[in-house]
Design goal:
The chain is an alpha/beta fold. The chain has a domain of 65 residues: Immunoglobulin-like (Sandwich), CATH 2.60.40. 23% of the residues lie in helices and 20% in strands. It has 13 helices and 25 strands. A hairpin with a 4-residue loop joins strand 24 and strand 25. Helix 5 runs parallel beside helix 6, helix 7 runs antiparallel to helix 8 and helix 9 crosses helix 10. It starts with 21 loop residues before the first strand and ends in a 10-residue tail after the last strand. One of its GO terms (biological process) is carbohydrate metabolic process. One of its GO terms (molecular function) is pullulanase activity. Its EC number is 3.2.1.41. This is Pullulanase.
């Protein structure tokens, strides 16, 4: 195994971001281009026929074929080894042979104006349930359907999400991931994965298509879903996972440029991600891959934002380059990520973690200090926070610091996400003697406080109706009966869902300008929000306007 950085191209490499890779349809011809810097021989395999490829500039190989070969299958043979295109935009099922696809950009929505309320959801979760009235269960098209209800008349799917008043829907991975058999049984409880196991960064996931064997079907149906969401007034944020691949040995990145795209030490893959490998964003061509990829999704699929999984693995320069590139399309595109302190960055490379947030303007970071102060550290099973009974002034001060923006700037304010236990499950576990009614009220209070915070409001799907996964705190591959969205629960807890709608309506036209503490104790916080004095008190759970103490601001 070769050391990382061995094949670095100069940072001022001419045309680094303007020189496209992959299969490119031109006037009357198709250009195939791949980065293979150490290769001695590269060939193109098109529909079983071999063609030589020629080195063009440093590290690039190219072949121009007559005709616009839309729909044609192709692969590269790099020093005798057959591999798919690492920049493929279409493929056969299960990350199969690459396929040439003609660009057909989805029209972009108007630039977003207002205060985002982000709602994180999973395509399969929202559509797979047996009683949700959705026809295309577990599919992109399922989240494009309108007028769907439960037998009791509760709106489901896209209609339900749009009714909440959130502004953005953030989708767990919709790119091609490795651990679901696209041609296998995809029925209820058959297969499940969140999708954080990347196979192809620029190809939509086939298990969400009605015909995974048709390489164009998944592209067409994903665009139909996004257009339906735009028509419903929602913007779409895409969860991207450039920090690792599922299997380096099988990755086209490794096949075309061994030792280049990943970080190594003494010939061994480094593992800052905890899943066996970490990509090297500081490498010019890995940086280019990331920039090119988000630009492709933003242009071709009209994506309105990008959430970077384990963003701390990446580097500041790459994230700023991504921000600048997206600004050329639409400055209102949101960029947010997990800026955890992690990764094995080479000397001189500045990590893209929350400690360096000030170096990355307009890139937002998930605020785990707010989350942990509220309910206790997510990774400590029986930990408590201020909402779950901890009487601790330092935690109250931590909560206020992050609420007010005096802690982490560019903050994503959240209480729960797909990872770890839901708030309801966490509180049920850590407050076993508390009534279910009080747990519900505490969850609602925790959610309400987010809407008075500085930063981006982030809501996990079902948080508005206290979603439960039966105590499963890591349901990334748990069956559908654990993960499927329970619309009937939303109907049963309608008063809380309605309260959530009021908060969304309030936040869409409001973002706090000034938040100052009046009093902080172990039992409560009194603070001024733009001159309005609020009392936050977990025991009993309430958030009140002290100038109108008879009015619970949750109402």
């Amino acid at each position: 195994m070769q050391e990382s950085n061995r094949h670095s191209a100069p940072k001022d490499w001419p045309g680094l971001y303007g020189y496209q890779l992959g299969a490119l349809l031109c006037d009357g011809s198709t250009v195939f281009r791949v980065f293979a810097p150490e290769a001695q021989d590269v060939q193109l395999l098109v529909n079983g026929e071999l063609f030589s490829m020629s080195p063009t500039r440093e590290g690039y190989w190219e072949s121009r074929q007559p005709g616009e070969l839309e729909g044609v299958e192709y692969q590269f043979i790099v020093d005798g080894r057959v591999c798919n295109d690492p920049n493929a935009r279409a493929s056969l099922a299960n990350s199969g042979v690459s396929v040439v696809v003609r660009p057909d950009p989805l029209p972009r929505a108007e630039p977003f104006a207002g205060n985002p309320v982000i709602y994180e959801a999973h395509v399969r979760d929202m559509t797979i349930g047996p009683e949700n009235g959705i026809t295309h269960k577990g599919k992109f098209l399922g989240l494009a359907e309108r007028g769907t209800t439960t037998p009791e008349g509760q709106p489901t799917g896209l209609d339900y999400i749009a009714s909440l008043g959130v502004t953005h829907i953030q989708l767990l991975p919709i790119f091609d991931f490795a651990t679901v058999d696209e041609l296998g049984d995809l029925s209820f409880n058959a297969q499940y994965n969140w999708g954080y196991d990347p196979a192809q960064y620029n190809v939509p996931e086939g298990s969400y298509a009605t015909d995974p064997s048709d390489p164009l079907c998944r592209i067409r149906e994903l665009k139909m879903m996004i257009q339906a969401m735009h028509d419903a007034g929602l913007r779409v944020i895409m969860d991207v996972v450039y920090n690792h691949v599922f299997d380096v040995a099988q990755s086209p990145l490794h096949h075309t440029a061994p030792g280049y795209y990943f970080r190594y030490r003494r010939g061994h893959l480094l593992n800052g991600t905890g899943v066996g490998n970490e990509t090297a964003s500081e490498q010019p061509m890995m940086r280019k891959l990331m920039v090119d990829s988000v630009m492709y999704w933003a242009k071709e699929f009209a994506i309105d934002g990008f959430r970077f999984d384990l963003m701390g693995i990446h580097d500041v320069e790459t994230m700023n380059e991504i921000r600048r590139a997206l600004d050329t399309i639409d400055p209102s595109i949101i960029v947010l990520g997990e800026g955890w302190h992690m990764g094995n960055h080479p000397k001189g490379v500045v990590p893209a973690n929350m400690g360096n947030a000030h170096l990355m303007p307009r890139i937002f970071h998930f605020n785990d200090r707010f989350r942990d102060a509220m309910k206790g550290p997510a990774l400590v099973e029986h930990s408590t926070g201020v909402i779950s009974g901890a009487r601790n002034e330092s935690l109250m001060r931590q909560l206020f610091e992050e609420l007010s923006g005096k802690g982490l700037d560019q903050s994503v304010v959240y209480n729960e996400a797909h990872d770890n236990a839901t708030m309801f499950d966490k509180l049920t576990s850590t407050m076993p003697r508390t009534s279910e009614q009080e747990v519900l009220d505490r969850c609602a209070l925790a959610t309400a406080l987010q809407f008075f915070a500085r930063g981006l409001v982030f809501i996990h799907a079902g948080q508005e109706m206290m979603r439960t996964k039966g105590g499963d705190e890591n349901s990334y591959r748990s069956p559908d009966h654990v993960n499927a969205f329970d619309y009937e629960r939303a109907r049963q807890l309608k008063q809380y869902v309605d309260r959530f709608r009021q908060l969304c309506a309030f936040r869409r036209s409001y973002a706090p300008d000034s938040i100052e503490a009046v009093e902080i104790t172990s039992s409560h916080v009194v603070f001024k929000v733009d001159g309005r004095t609020l009392l936050f008190e977990p025991n009993p759970p309430r958030l009140v306007d002290l100038e109108h103490p008879q009015m619970d601001v949750l109402l």
